[in-house]
Records
---
Amino acid sequence: MRPGLLLALLLAAAPAPEVRRLPPIDSCAADPGFLAFRTELQAAVERRDAAYLLSIVADDIEFSFGGEPGRDAFAREWQLDRPATSPLWAELGEELRLGCVADGDDGNWAPSLFMSEELDDPFGTALAIHPGAELHGAPGDASPVLATLDWDLVEVVEWNGEDPWQRVRTVDGREGYARSSDLRSPADYRAGFRRIAGRWRMTTFIAGD
């Protein structure tokens, strides 16, 4: 048998590299009432409508660990008196983009990553949230591209939130660098929603554990 043919057969028989992907899921859309609520909320985020947002925020919304809860404190924290420059819209918009799941206790959570049962170590794991994100050999766009990450779960070797690049390891053991903007930690911001007195409200908007 020719060596080239033997190599081709061996490669064909070899198991494919292990990949763990976790694309967003949306089980919340099955509830027509919540679907209509979320559509209105997404539109409010697009137009940076602080008045609408505060109208759907729960009186006792949780938004920090150990801090003062409540709508007024939430508004101060996110600078909603200056809605044009508030960082809230980008953050909440990203969460709403990344799926939604029910918690089994009449509540819904976005993004769906937060509720995933596949996460062994939420603080050491990140998800490549932009399909086509690149794994580079070094921190920089000019470095070689080692792989393309499409909703891949990767291990963060050492998380540095101030750095534009993070060193990560894929499930099959390859190490490289991914842009921080392409990664999301399961412990990052998430939004919780619950029906109160017949109306959907945002009851939680928090990061960490």
---
Amino acid sequence: MDLHVATYNIHKGFSHFNRRMMVHELRARLRSVNADIIFLQEVQGAHERHARRFHHWPERPQYEFLADQVWPEFAYGRNAVYDHGHHGNAILSRFPILKWENLDVSSHALERRGLLHCEIEIPGSGLVHCLCVHLALDERGRTHQLRAIVERVVELVPDDHPLIVAGDFNDWRNRAGRRLAAELGLTEVFRDDRGRPARSFPAGFPIFRLDRIYVRGFSVYHAEVHHGHPWSKISDHAMLTARLAVG
């Protein structure tokens, strides 16, 4: 079966440097891509100050607003909680999410991170495990979180079940890819002949290779980085998409 997936750090619905609120434009762009499963990071679950400041701020949480009428299933992992709101990771799906859990993988109190794990039933193909991640800015934190990913997969994902791990890895040195390949057998969909993933940040002219889509149990027949206009007006990260075939 052809499975179209995407990952996107949406910067809490704001453009680069927080110049403009872009939630409505973001929803239109997500719909134009028409992916089956979308892995989102920095999703605003609630923000009282933004709701008062912007008259067209959605009344519903961003993940519900973005999923509306296109992705009937969604899961949200609340990670960072503050007085006026909270944000985290989300997965939007066209297919049934049978089970989901958000695991706290924070390495310290000042940078809250979570691992959102969904089990999604794909018609005709069975169960696919989907992990949405947003790793820490510091190397020590990422090492802790990669260990949590490996332990989670080893414990709960059978070797013969298809697996997707996607999100913002903040992995400047590409150490995550080597570890996930060695310990879990994962392959990065954009990996070139030197083992490097795609450039995805900043969205206007990508230089850094921060965002990833890792898979196991799939063949990859197309991958694309969505950057430049109009993507650079919506978020500071580019969106990544991939078309996969099970098996």
---
Amino acid sequence: MRTDIYGQSIFNENDLCDLYMRDPTRTIKQALVEKQIDLSDIFLSSDNLPELIQYVDSKISVAEFDSRNQDTWHMPIEYQNFDIAKWVLDQCKGEAELQRTGDELLQFHDRNMFPLLRYLKYLVDTMRKHNIIWGVGRGSSVASFVLFLIGIHRINSLHYDLSIDEFLK
């Protein structure tokens, strides 16, 4: 397996065979491949054949690649359609929290970051469901009260009077 400049994993026939041999019960839904491969000799059942997607080196910049894929988040449909703004506003206790959250949500909306917020909600819910522990917060993300409400970090930026501008520079 190799990784291209965009961080995509590109497989060859040996890579897919190795993945299957390590865990035959593992379901591989899709695989990005250098060239088309006949998997019928590798996978015992045609029920679990992955969809193979031909890799095309498109020679676009990493920024353009990120822009094209910004709205593609792998999460359940209920999170893709989740009203994150309403949920975050419902978590607020008091006028100061509502004001700060509203201001931040406007900035997230202007930057087309609602899909990211939905994904972060899904991530936190999944980590909680599986009892996965994550840190209390670090870097500029702790300046976001919205991220605090979602549960990404445990630093209340209102309590410490942290400006959202420190996060959304």
---
Amino acid sequence: MIPLLGLQRARDWITVPVVQYIIKQLVTRNDAHLEKYTFHIIPATNPDGYVYTWTTNRNWSKTRSQNGLCYGVDRK
């Protein structure tokens, strides 16, 4: 299994279109070599952190969930 991650961190804007392009190629391409594989596409996103990077703080990289006194969970 090879994971294909996009928007793993909120400020990684370019990863969304890259992953969408790769998924589109896998789904729409007529290629005999791809027929022998099974692909599992599992969307997992960080929409609140993503929007926050566009509207408030470009360098924000976490979620916006509140954890006690601070905001966000950072996946490293």
